[in-house]
Write a structure and sequence with these properties.
mainly alpha
Length: 169
């Protein structure tokens, strides 16, 4: 633009310079008052968002690590529980076998003791029976010797003797 054209619009060189100076001052003032604080606010908010995203990523990784660790611990606990249950079953089986063995041994001991008691009782009964038979034999022999008996008396004496033995048993 040349000077004539500017004057035709109705603006002088001084006014144009003043307008340009005002625009530059207004630009600098707006930049200083608005652009810098808004730019700093945007930068601050961007940093906060980036830090939040970074923190979220760290938390996600930490959560994955914890999930893995907890999964491993749960698996270890299950394995340990399985081993404990197996050990308990093994101990139970051993205790049952031992208890059964002891019960069988006690049963055998009781049976042997009962056999011995029966045998002793049998021997004592035979011994008593021999003594009674001997005393009855002596008594019969004494009666026989006391009197001379015929065959009928002899049968009668034997029957009495057998009756007495039957009552004594």
């Amino acid at each position: 633009m040349n000077g004539e054209e500017i004057e035709m619009i109705g603006i002088s060189w001084q006014q144009l310079a003043m307008i340009i100076a005002h625009v530059v001052v207004l630009f600098l003032l707006l930049r200083w008052l608005l652009y810098t604080p808004v730019s700093q606010l945007i930068d601050s908010r961007t940093r906060e968002i980036e830090e939040g995203l970074q923190l979220a990523e760290e938390n996600r990784q930490r959560q994955e690590q914890l999930n893995t660790e907890y999964g491993e611990k749960i698996q270890e606990a299950r394995e340990e529980a399985r081993k404990i249950v197996e050990k308990a079953y093994t101990q139970r089986d051993e205790l049952l076998k031992e208890a059964q063995k002891e019960a069988n041994q006690k049963k055998e001991e009781m049976l042997e003791k009962a056999r011995q008691e029966i045998e002793a009782e049998k021997e004592r009964a035979f011994s008593e029976m021999r003594e009674e038979i001997a005393s009855f034999s002596v008594a019969i022999a004494g009666r026989i010797l006391e009197k001379e008996i015929d065959e009928a008396s002899h049968k009668k004496l034997i029957e009495q003797y057998l009756d007495e033995v039957g009552r004594a048993s």
